[in-house]
Amino acid sequence: MKTKLILVLLALATLTVNAQTIDKLIDKYSNDKDCEYVSIQKGLFNLTQWFGGANIDKETKEVLSRIKTMKILTINLDNKAVLRRNFQMELDKVLTRGNFEKMMVTRNKTDHSTVYGSTDTNNGSELVIVAQNADQLSLIIMKGNLTHDDLEKIAK
Fold first, then answer.
1. pTM here?
2. Per-residue pLDDT for the chain (156 aa), expressed as one digit of tens each?
3. What is the distance between the alpha carbons of residues 102 and 57, in angstroms, rounded to a whole number?
4. Which of 23, 64, 100, 116 has its CA 20 to 30 A from that of 152?
5. What DSSP assignment string belongs to the chain?
6. Helix or strand or coil: residue 103?
7. CA quadruple 60, 63, 65, 71: dihedral sign
């Protein structure tokens, strides 16, 4: 009995170690011909603040300075129902396993957006925005040293 329990625990540990992350999901789909991918690093956020400094309030600048990366994956969905369904299923698994909190949902006649946030004890955080309409599904991920309050400010 103990041997079986240990084997089950080892199998679960292996699954956890190999669990897909948001980054792995983006990597998987970023080279697909029906997808567009953009990665923005910290230096560009600093440049943006410098160029638009007069129009950005101090609190927003502070939050932006703590963002390390932003990644955007857009899936063009022209008759790609299978691609959309597979991506959505994988994304839902990642969000569930990653302990993401649903922070905001917006809907209108053609668009639907959901914002998720996750922070750890070291203020490492991820903000995930899933925006979709009939033609596209976009996944936007921001990572940085942000607090839960920062995530709420960005989400609004």
1. 0.75
2. 444 333 333 333 333 333 468 899 999 998 888 889 999 887 776 665 555 556 667 777 777 778 888 999 999 876 667 888 888 899 999 998 888 889 889 999 899 999 998 887 776 788 899 999 888 899 999 888 877 777 677 666
3. 26
4. 23
5. -HHHHHHHHHHHHHHHHT---HHHHHHHHHTSTTEEEEEEEHHHHHHHHHHTGGGS-HHHHHHHHTEEEEEEEEEE-TT-HHHHHHHHHHHHHHHHHTTPEEEEEEE-SS-EEEEEEEE-TTSEEEEEEEEE-SSEEEEEEEEEE--HHHHHHHH-
6. strand
7. negative
> What amino acid occupies position 116?
Y
Phi, psi of 18 (to 5 degrees): -90, 5
At position 23, the amino acid (one-letter code) is D
Token duo for residue 126: 């991820």
> What token pair was written down for 54?
């007069």
Measure Cα distances from 97 to 17, 23, 39, 70, 80 in Å: 12, 14, 24, 21, 26
Helix (H, G, I), strand (E, B) or coil at 114: strand
> Which domains are present in the chain?
20-155 (3.30.2030)
